[in-house]
Amino acid sequence: MAKSKYAVDNLIVLFTCIGRRVSLLNSFRRSARELKINAKFLGTDTTELSSALQLCDKGLLVKPITHANYIKQLLTIAKTNKVKLLVPTVDLDLKLLARNKPKFAAMGCRVLVSTPDV
Fold first, then answer.
1. Domain PylC N-terminal, which positions (predicted)?
2. What CATH code is carried by the domain that includes residue 91?
3. Best exposed site among 5, 25, 43, 110 by fewest CB in 10 Å?
4. What is the distance between the alpha carbons of residues 10 and 2, in angstroms, rounded to a whole number?
5. What's the per-residue H, E or C state across 51-74?
């Protein structure tokens, strides 16, 4: 693949609660290809039966959002896999991820959420 004019060479994207979001995953994959960005797509879910999880480059099982160790699990996944972009896919994730955004930023991972007060 020719080098992209964008600053990211190896973009690792993590989708939380990927579920049935096959179209979302395919859209990201297509955009990365068109922009000549070398990207890998990871997904998390609570069940291995998730259709989109099966299509990710790597699927990871996690505890439910309400579990006390949910954020800790995501932080570990982000660090271990060198995730650069975290994309939440359900509303329940938004406030929790917004409050923990600095923890992800400290390891070079950008979380696509607004500030907690929005």
1. 13-112
2. 3.40.50.20
3. 5
4. 13
5. HHHHHCCEEEECCCCCCCCHHHHH
Q: What is the mean pLDDT of each run of 10 residues along the chain (118 residues)?
A: 64 96 96 96 96 96 97 98 97 94 98 88
The reported pTM is 0.90
Place of tokens 């995953």: 25
What is the enclosing helix (H) or strand (E) of 42?
Answer: strand 38-45
d(CA 53, CA 103) in angstroms, rounded, equals: 25
What's the number of domains the chain is made of? 1
Beta carbons of 38 and 6 less than 8 angstroms apart = no
Residue 3 lies in a domain: no
Instruction: Tell whether 2 is covered by a domain.
Output: no
Q: Are 71 and 94 in contact (CB under 8 A)?
A: no
